[in-house]
Write a structure and sequence with these properties.
Length: 91
């Protein structure tokens, strides 16, 4: 089918349905300014690489370990126990 802007518009074969929700993904990508490799302008660098994922995972694990140490400390456990005792025995 000819396209008014020139070129040929590609259509899916009959009986082939688009993935449910794919239109929303396309709209979000366009709103965020992400380019697909189909538009001829190249790909954007919007995603994280494997090394960035690894550094992010290590940072999240370090934060979780620090929070675990704080929450399991004697001072925090004592404060939470006192708070719960006062809440349960309040009249």
């Amino acid at each position: 089918m000819p396209n008014p802007a020139g070129g040929v518009r590609h259509r899916r074969p009959l009986g082939v349905r688009r993935r449910r929700g794919a239109w929303l993904v396309g709209r979000v990508r366009r709103a965020l300014g992400c380019r697909s490799s189909r538009d001829g302008r190249g790909r954007s660098d919007a995603g994280m690489t494997t090394a960035e994922y690894a550094v992010g995972t290590l940072g999240a694990c370090a934060l979780a370990a620090g929070l675990y140490k704080v929450v399991t400390s004697a001072a925090v456990i004592g404060s939470l126990t006192d708070l719960l005792d006062r809440a349960l025995h309040a009249t």
